Amino acid sequence: MSERPEDRNEKIAVRFQVNGEPTELLVSANETLLSALRNQLGLTGTKYGCGTGDCCACTVSVNGRAILSCLSLAAELEGENVTTVEGLSDGSKLNPVQASFAELGAVQCGFCTPGMIMTINALLAENPDPSEQEVRHYLRGNLCRCTGYVKIVDAALAAAGTMEA
Amino acid sequence: MLKHHDAGAEMVPQEGVHEVDNVGARLGRTDAWRKVTGQEQYMEDVPLVSQLWGKILRSPHPHARIRGIDVSRAESLPGVKAVITFRDIVPFKIGYSTHGDQFALCHDRARYVGDEVAAVAAVDEETAEKALSLIDVDYEVLPFVLDPIEAMKPDAIVLHKDKGTNIAAENHTEFGDVEKGFAEADHVFEDEFETQRQCHVCMEVHGCVANWGNDDSLSVWTSTQSPHIVKRFLAKAVDLPLSKVRVNRVGVGGAFGSRTDLFPHDVIAAYLSKKARRPVKLLFSRQEEFYASATRHPALVRIKTGIKDGMITTRHVTAILNGGAYTSQTGAVMGSLGWKASNYYRIENYRYDGYGVLTNTSVATAYRGYGGPQLGFALESQIDMIAERLELDPVEFRLNNANRQGDTSVSGSYFSSCELTQCIEAADRALEGEKPAGRDQGRGMAIGFGESGWRGAYYNNSDVSAATIKMNMDGSIHTTVGGAEIGTGYDTTMAQIAADALGVPIDQVSVHSGDTNDAAYDLGLYASRGAITSGMAVKLAADKTKGKLLDAAAKMLDTPRSELSIENRCIVSSANPNIAITMAEIAEHIYEEEGSAVFGTGIYDPQTHLADETGFHASPGGSITYPFCAVNLDVSVNRDTGEFKIGKIAVAVDCGKPINPAIVEGQIEGDVFHGLGMATVEPGLDYDDAGAPKYHHLVDYKLLTAADMPQIECIVAESTDPTGPFGVKGVTQLITSSVGAALANALNDAIGVRMTSLPITPEKILQALERAQS
Lengths: 165, 774
Description:
By secondary structure, chain A is an alpha+beta fold. Chain A is built from five helices and five strands; from the N terminus they run ββαβββαααα.
């Protein structure tokens, strides 16, 4: 509950699916999806990197497409199906992209990792057998300061292999 | 109950599990599952009940006298819970160790655009931002200086009146006889180079979450490389005993040197929480991250080199570093640049003149390479320039002058291991068969030199790390270390060392780092020291734990201790093959029958020597051992547009024995990324004529993307170093220092123009081509 009394009447109700769960939230008109996920639903796996759509750390999936949650308004997501990094696995078995990130050393500080994994999942949904060039091109918006992208690209290609199988 | 087992019966350990399985293995990281599932908790994810948002009011002027600050309008805004200015805080000067000159909040003067003037805590971010706009500051705008050369002049505007000069640190050191060396040389060359103000651009912004308890204790979650350093100076800044200040473990979203100290935002968050009596989360925006977090030092480096009979005999390096508005680590980075230069090649005479200069720009601090990238670009570019002038092969020229194992450098560093020549040859060979034949294609090499820890980094006489191992009743172990997992694989590396040192399977090892309440005093992660100093501390802790187990087993089994050893997770007797007892059994016995506990603490401070105030004279070494590398790359250039494309980068590193090859490769690849960014697309934080920073967003300040990065080939030229745990040496930083010169050398090879400033852009290449034609 907001501590600012003037806010209470300005909220918009929005109903959507988050990681498969029907979810209803009251959001202010300018509340981003990033803020709603993190601050209202406690889904903190999605990261704030820049707030201006330049780093893709906040990438989530809406109906299977990778979108930037820092530039999306929560109020506009009525009826949509949102998946965050928390929704990719049940915690005991990893999604193939998560598994290859863990196995191949694609994680260092880990801050860009959720956004990277969401973007690669979207890529593999569109193109299950991408070339290295296609992976690199698709990831050109997702910034990472630790890895030089080498093992991230390796992990994407390896995940494509396992998804095919 | 005591159990005796036949060594041949059911106590035979599982196949494949024996004492030295993990060190050297390409294991998955211990933090990977948390990070790939979104569970890792960074500062922004710390959940505290009734948490407030903190925001900092920053100076819009590069230099101004603050005549007054009126916070009354901000304080009366509904939702605002605390507003603070310098009057609310202890006048503690923040800086590098005890050499502070920066108040967490400005007193009567602001010294750069971004300087902290006041701060608020409010119920949400929007209210906090609104409150900032309601703080009235009466500024008297003052003349300012951005350029260090201008700032060094006697009539320059002085930033800190008490210093009387903008030169925060000077270094004038000589070994041998430089004047004589130049006089006797066949050739003397002098060249000048310039590098930009590279930003760390951590993916996680800086900030601090602070909770001032009603019992007057302070708990903070701050993304840091050195939790104990933060604790030590934060306690002073908030005037609490060290026992009342805790730095908690938190995920660190990239550091690269930018998180080695206590910063104003840590102190500000603490005081906001104290005043509001509620937890405060204070995080930078990405814009603040660019203009108000620390950067690399922009540098001018002049190198004068004397050659006799094809050998480098004499060097004189002059460096001017722009330190920004406060001293921070400027003296140390400037000293390190000069010290590194004395260790690159076998030389007889060396002189260093270094200047760290304050200007009205954002504060410069440690950044991957610590003076190395500025130096490496200059020194290794000049090596090729000299080779070209003397018509020597640059690779052979390097090999002829390279350090070798057993050498002592002109400034006294002893190289207990050195595979530099192997690195040069391997990096050269790696591109064989790919020799670019076409017009406008070229190849360039540069070598690198680094440290593995550094004695006296915080003006102390220490390079200490600490670890404690506690064995549980089931034989599994809990390892506590004093550094922090900053993304470099520290926790995993420590787990591998602990597992092998104690003969415990890695899946029974947990590592806890980054919490000052858990570990003993440890200087943290900088200077590529983690694997070595913490690794040795873990090994010592394991040895002590082992000792306890053996003591108890000797008593329990009524066997002389000298006959007992740990093999395959069992305590066995050399005299009696029928004696074997598992670690779990002896541990349980110690807890349940002896009423005792199984633990061991390891404190490690390497046998290194303290440099004097110049940063030199630490012979035989301020660092316990030294890594070396060679970088070789191919480039092709489009003369019409100035654009260039790197084909492949080969990196050969002598980093001792890799504890985990995947982690070492990750560090090498990251090192290339920072070096190549500095060499190409990263403009550096620049200022306009009004003293305002030009870049605030990732669209202006470019980073290399996955689509831009060339192929990287990592070659580990393994050496056996007797000093670190398992022969490990530092691996990060030195490659970052080599990439710029390798690129400049390759471009010269391709199109015959010499680039002497970073970043190298298509525009600069076109200008250079035009100059060459006219």
